[in-house]
């Protein structure tokens, strides 16, 4: 029987546990905890593609770039994405390799710097909304707006920040390479941070753009294009809940596609900045032929796969 394929999208909690543990070493150790559970999937015969977030890490690179701007050139946003994909991919790949060696699993691992194509005409570019980088004074913000074309906003009276677009992912540029690796049994790390956002210029060539792509939507697109049997989002909670954090909180064991659509369309059930994009990503995966999806935390991946916990999404 052919091995089943899973795209496993790991969240920020798999890399940064809390504000006191943000160093490179801290992130490496946090990644190790998650890869133990991913390797359990490999041990049970899954072909696995791991994707990951990179928001805080991009922020760190931007901050270092800003602090060193008096001496060195600044780093463009698309290159920050590439830098962090490489660093996080290295940490995940090495942890996967080490854990599989400990278990006697002979599977190769590859971390692939991945581009994701977006449309320059995406409406998101007309209304940038994703804050990035450090807080600035109003004077500095207006200077960067005039000199560099930044879009800047005042962020909740905490200072001024740059905002960029969050366009929809349309195409995983390295999809064929990912397929080739998966087909020969490689455990792949790809589409980090939603992929490096790129778009076609007037000559038809790809070039980087200043944008941030939602990691879960890009991971969903990857799962769709690969025809993955499972789309698993590993996040900070064991299950999805309606009214999370309220007296009316209700944990969910299973949702059909229709139920997920209804709850999302009603609004108010899922937080816009956290769970709502994950539900949307699952919906899009199932709408495009996906088998089933799971949302749980890393430490419950194994029992969730066995139907003991987590929130399972199916077409019907």
Q: What is the helix content? A: 25-40%
Strands across the major sheet, in which order? 3-9-2-1-12-16-17-15
Number of helical segments?
A: 9
Q: Indicate the mean pLDDT.
A: 94
Shape: globular
| CATH superfamily placement of the largest domain | Acetylglutamate kinase-like
Report on the architecture of this protein.
The chain has 316 residues and is an alpha/beta fold. It folds into two domains: 5-118 and 170-314, Carbamate kinase, CATH 3.40.1160; 128-164, no CATH class. It has nine helices and 17 strands. The protein has helices at 24-43, 55-67, 77-103, 138-148, 175-183, 215-226, 257-266, 275-287, 301-305; strands spanning 5-10, 47-52, 109-111, 115-117, 130-136, 151-154, 160-164, 171-172, 187-189, 196-200, 206-208, 230-234, 240-242, 250-252, 254-256, 292-296, 311-314. The strands form four sheets. The protein has an eight-stranded mixed β-sheet with strand order 3-9-2-1-12-16-17-15, with helices on both faces. Helix 1 links the parallel strand 1 (5-10) and strand 2. Helix 6 packs parallel to helix 8. The longest helix is centred in the first third of the chain and has 27 residues, at 77-103. 41% of the residues are buried. The mean pLDDT is 94.
